[in-house]
Amino acid sequence: MEGAVVLLDFWPSMFGMRTRIALAEKEIKYEYSEQDLWNKGELLLQMNPVHKKIPVLIHNGKPVCESLNQVQYIDEVWNDRAPLLPANTYKRANARFWADFVDKKLYDLGSKIWKTKGEEQEAAKKEFIDCLKLLEGELGDSLYFGGKDFGYVDVALVPFYCWFYAYEQCGNFSIEAECPKLIAWVKRCMQKESVAKSLVDREKVYEFVLQLKKLYGIE
Amino acid sequence: MADEVVVLDFWASPFAMRVKLALSEKGITYECKPQDLLNKGPLLLQANPVHKKIPVLIHNGRSICESLIIVRYIDEVWTHVSPLLPSDPYQRSQALFWADYIEKQVYDLGKRVYVAQEDQAEAKEKLIQCLKTLETELGDKPYFGGDGIGFVDVALLPFTTWFYTYERSGNFSIQESCPKLIAWVERCRQKQSVSDALPHPHKIYDFYLLFKEALGVK
Fold first, then answer.
1. How far apart are alpha carbons B73 and A31 in whole angstroms?
2. Any CB–CB contact under 8 A between B186 and chain A?
3. What separation in angstroms does the CA of A212 have from each of A103, A112, A166, A206, B93?
4. DSSP state of A34
């Protein structure tokens, strides 16, 4: 169980934040290594030769790639504290389903919101809000997606909050107005130290998005 | 109490085949309920309201959706027979990585090949690269799972029923570029559990010819 833990990451990545939260929940000491995605280093290319992407979790010299995979790995190895996945098999499948839903939808729709304009942007905004409303429905009256306790789906989703401000500015809409229950859930999560210290400042993310827009020549 | 296991299915779907393959490997009796995908019925819409897609596993009245999630569920419920995922967390993370790689690549690239638009040549090349990467991962093992069929084998095998369709529509040979992978396919097909669960590639090709329009081929 013990052994060196290194995280190859990029500060605004919502995927990297998932792994940061999981490590913090389990109180695991690790070395954080900021990567330059425009000039990928040897270690990243060696540890993730297939996708060449962050985050990469390196445990005892061996890489685990893909953020949800990393969260599950962390949960399984450090299984003596702060469980993230439910013990019940059916509930576990349900948690994986909703984390997968977040993965399938939010990143691409969010990207469309800041990258496009006009009809394409409007369609993306609408579908994005529809997805968040579905998630609100799944949350119901629970404190967290994990029920009484913070869990796997909470970890999968909460990092996207850092990008909401950028989406709102670029798309000229308010996520809180449409999904107040979800924002209330975010605020509950932010009271947890593991979340507060893993998430980044949303204005800094917006500045980063503006830089990306300039870089890609997007208006 | 006997388990009630139902699969909402479509016979040509590689995703549904994964579920049937996992159940077959574990020797689990189930009821297959084929679905009309052009005219989705209330059972499917109720069982998978979010995506409205097959496959859905209904176990004692409760639905599980998304093929790889279903396969993991099957592996965890019927844990004492033919385990699909390794027990070691690191080995497990590797298997999950490769299944995710297959998920991200094979279906989309294969579709771009059989839909045969301007990007077909690029899709063919990327598909071959992807299959070669998987061949390298297989290495000298008889199966991706090692000595027996595992999670990655279950994730990939159904797509091999579409290989003939990709080859005919793209006019190329997967065997030529990836002989070791084809050897693996043939090895798997010799197992009763696999040949029971997977349709013959020529049947998939006939389906493709019949339903070209519905599949998006112009």
1. 34
2. no
3. 22, 13, 12, 10, 32
4. E
Does the structure show a pLDDT above 80 at A1?
no
Q: How many C-beta atoms lie closer than 10 Å to residue B153's C-beta? A: 26
Chain B hits for A90, CB-CB cut-off 8 Å, are 59, 62, 64, 73
The 10 Å CB-count burial string (b at 16+, else e) for B108-126 is ebbebbbbbeeebeebbeb
- Residue pLDDT, tens place only, B46-57: 999 999 999 999
Contact A64 B69 (CB under 8 A): no
**Inter-chain residue contact A73 with B89, CB threshold 8 Å:** yes
Look up the ipTM and state it: 0.95
pLDDT over threshold 60, residue B1: no
pLDDT at B2: 77
Only one residue has tokens 């091999």, namely B160
Of B9, B173, B3, B171, nearest to B78 by C-alpha is B3
Q: Which chain A residues are within 8 Å of B97, Cβ to Cβ?
A: 64-66, 69
Scan for tokens 């009809």, then name that residue: A119
| Per-residue tokens: B166 | 């990709």
| Residues on chain A touching B101 (C-beta within 8 angstroms) | 50
Asked if A154 is an interface residue toward chain B (Cβ–Cβ < 8 A), one would say: no
Q: How far apart are CA A135 and CA A142, in angstroms?
A: 12
Q: Are B165 and B208 in contact (CB under 8 A)?
A: yes
Q: How far apart are CA B33 and CA A71, in angstroms?
A: 35
Q: What is the pTM of this model?
A: 0.96
Cα Rg of chain A (Å, integer): 17
Cβ contact A101–B50 (<8 Å): yes
| Residue A2 pLDDT greater than 70, yes or no | no
B24 pLDDT above the threshold of 70: yes
Distance, CA of B44 to CA of A18 (rounded, Å) = 32
CA angle A142, A144, A149 (to 5 degrees): 105
**Interface residue A96 vs chain B (CB under 8 A):** yes
Beta bridge partners of B59: B5, B62
Chain B residues in contact with A89 (beta carbon < 8 A): 73, 76-77
